[in-house]
Design a protein that fits this description.
Structural class: mainly alpha
Number of domains: 2
Oligomer: single chain
Number of strands: 0
């Protein structure tokens, strides 16, 4: 019974993570994928370039990307981000599942009433 419950919970958690990644990708595209956001990003890059030329208090590099980093991350590297999220979440879920299963088995084998 514990195994089936954990399997169903795992499927729900992984579905939620993948759905969340797709939702985040859509939100990022809607937020940073328009002309206004690209103009704002270009203005930021220009401001950094001016700071570099003037020799401001902090030495900075001009961002190389023509697009905002969040947009690049979730458009060009979406598969990699989703894979890593699923793998790390699976490892975390497996750890908690082993802990929960161990507690449940220990309770069943215990002679001490709770």
């Amino acid at each position: 019974m514990i195994n089936i419950s954990l399997l169903i919970l795992y499927a729900l958690v992984m579905t939620g993570i993948v759905w969340g990644m797709f939702s985040m990708q859509q939100w990022t595209e809607a937020t940073y994928g328009n002309a206004a956001a690209e103009t704002e990003w270009q203005d930021f890059r220009d401001a950094v370039a001016e700071t570099v030329e003037e020799g401001g208090p902090v030495q900075r590099r001009i961002p190389a990307s023509e697009k905002p980093p969040g947009l690049v991350l979730l458009s060009d590297y979406f598969i990699q981000c989703t894979t890593i999220a699923v793998l790390l979440s699976s490892a975390l879920f497996a750890t908690f599942a082993l802990l929960i299963k161990g507690v449940m088995v220990a309770e069943e084998e215990s002679d001490v009433p709770l």
